[in-house]
Amino acid sequence: MEKKLHILFLNGWYPSRVMPYNGDFIQRHAEAVAIKNKVTSIHVITDDNINNNLEIEKKQINGVTTIIGYVRPTQNIILKAYLFYKAYKQIFKLIEPYQFVHVNRIYPIGLIAIYLKIFKKKPFIVSEHWTGYLTHNIRGLEKFFSNAIAKNASYICPVSDHLGSMMQKNGLKGNYTTIPNVVNTDIFKPLKIKNKTFTLLHISHMGDQHKNISGQLRVIAKLKEKISNFNFYLIGENSFRYKPIIKELNIESNVILINQIKHSEIPEYMNKADLLIQFSNYENLPCVILEAFACGLPVISTNVGGISEHFPDNFGTLISKNNEKELLTSILIFHKYSNAEKALIMHKYIESKFSPPVLCDKFTSLYEQALLRINK
Predict the structure, then answer these.
(1) DSSP sequence for 204-269
(2) Given a cut of 90, is residue 134 above it in pLDDT?
(3) Whether the predicted pLDDT of 340 surpasses 90
(4) Which InterPro entries match (predicted)?
(5) Same domain for 225 and 150
(6) What DSSP line would sit under 52-86, residue for residue?
(7) Which residues pair with 67 in a beta bridge?
(8) Could you count the other beta carbons within 10 Å of the beta carbon of residue 374?
(9) Do 359 and 338 share a domain, yes or no?
(10) 192: in domain
(11) Residue 249 has what pLDDT?
């Protein structure tokens, strides 16, 4: 199939050999856009194990030309800026002619997009995923430059309406249109492989302030007083740091800790589970909830951020933030509940709104509209 446009993805976060899962949701956006467009995705990151000042790596990954620059870490801010500049300069020499720029994470990577717009006449949109807008106000140089980037963008695309409203409360004015994260519905689908034991699941980066892991574990201890035969899978980077509190709560026989796993392995765990738990203090629109729905897995989640924007009533339960009693009650209700008859309905809902072809069409439409305005 002939590709419509060549899109350059400029990424503040992106998977690399240093951080293999960092910004993998951005990578999935790039792969979705690549269904109908040529995509080159670039990123620069420091690497403690690099022998030289700079190393450039170019690969084809799932239909996306991926160019990662690795630079030697340094405490000297001026030298660091120079190395990053040098890395981007070399990377741009490897990029074939492109028509449009797609920025991921408005600041600071969006500064390059402003340069490309002014001096190379390349329009750009911004996709924003950062939860930081939910917990603090940006200020100083970050606010000044973020404002400039937002005003110059053809579109700003937060992953939830709630995130967009928080960005605007931070003073970032622009042309907003929400485009959510993508779900690969070819792999996230019902597989009918449930465990015989009642199984709860939580998957995240394990930050307690954000995901409230300690609160979940306290609820698991209370759950053990009600039912004895269940498992709670806690999957994510640094999950083992919770061993002491698990021992203290005497729930070692019920909690199974698993370190970071490949994204492609998640569907199996979701299909074996009976319930996904999301007990966050703040969120945008977590990929893990949408992926659970695609697998036919019901979710109990706190009603924070943009979660309620795509949470049909019969797909699970929304509860109050930090309400451990409500979480326990909801789990006990689901303990007697079978979701098998709704699994296909849940999958089709996600497929119609979040599948790669749907997201590709949404982004491609924005690229074309922006180019039309410029070419008038």
Answers:
(1) S---HHHH-HHHHHHHHHHHHHH-SSEEEEEESTTGGGGHHHHHHTT-TTTEEEE----GGGHHHH
(2) no
(3) no
(4) Glyco_trans_1
(5) no
(6) SSEEEEEEEETTEEEEEEEE---S-HHHHHHHHHH
(7) 42, 58
(8) 13
(9) no
(10) no
(11) 98
Residue with tokens 């690549």: 34
Domain count, the chain: 2
Q: How many CB atoms lie within 10 A of CB 120?
A: 10
- Helix axes 213-226 and 324-335, enclosed angle (nearest 10): 50
pLDDT at 370 exceeding the cut of 80 = yes
Are 208 and 339 found together in one domain?
yes
Tell whether 50 is covered by a domain.
yes
Listing DSSP states for 146-208 in one string gives HHHHHHH-SEEEESSHHHHHHHHHTT--S-B--------TTTSS------SSEEEEEES---H
Tokens for 304, please give them.
């924070």
> Any idea what the CATH number is for the domain that residue 19 is in?
3.40.50.2000
The residue-averaged pLDDT of 10-31 equals 97
Token look-up 């709104």 returns 353
Average pLDDT in the 35-52 region?
97
Residue 1 pLDDT greater than 70, yes or no? no
Look up the pTM and report it: 0.94
CB within 8 A of 187, min separation 6: which ones?
264, 267
Tell me the C-alpha distance between 257 and 318, whole Å.
Answer: 25
Strand partners, 300: 277, 317
pLDDT for residue 172: 96
Which residues touch 81 (CB under 8 Å, ≥6 apart)?
none
Q: Compare 337 and 29 and report the one with higher pLDDT.
A: 29
For residue 250, is it left (φ>0), alpha (ψ between -120 and 50) or beta? Answer: left
Residue 213 has pLDDT above 90, yes or no: yes
pLDDT band with cut points at 50, 70 and 90 for residue 68: very high
Q: Say how far apart CA 199 and CA 273 lie, in whole Å.
A: 5
274 and 327 in a common domain: yes
Let me know if 116 is exposed, middle or buried by CB neighbors in 10 A (0-12, 13-18, 19+): buried
